[in-house]
Design goal:
single chain; alpha+beta; Alpha-Beta Plaits; metal ion binding; iron-sulfur; Fe-S_cluster_ET; iron
Length: 80
């Protein structure tokens, strides 16, 4: 499973931070940060989700009010 985070879309509500510790607050930018993510594009970051964090990653994506977070299964299908 992998997660993609669009930092440009993020509005800094930080619900994702409350749901999964892989997200941290960047108070200076007013945006969340996806820890250990690799940049895919300028503002799009991606990382693998550990098996023991899959539920937390899904909750983080569902909690985002602007859909800046997407979760994909191992086949590349978007599940959140």
């Amino acid at each position: 499973m992998r997660i993609e985070y669009d930092r440009d879309t993020c509005i800094g509500m930080f619900q994702c931070v409350a749901e999964w510790d892989a997200f941290e607050r960047d108070e200076d930018a007013g945006k969340a940060v996806l820890v250990d993510a690799e940049p895919k594009d300028e503002d799009l970051f991606v990382r693998e989700v550990p098996e023991d964090a899959e539920l937390d990653a899904k909750f983080a994506a569902r909690a985002c009010p602007v859909d800046a977070i997407r979760v994909y299964d191992d086949d590349g299908e978007q599940i959140v």
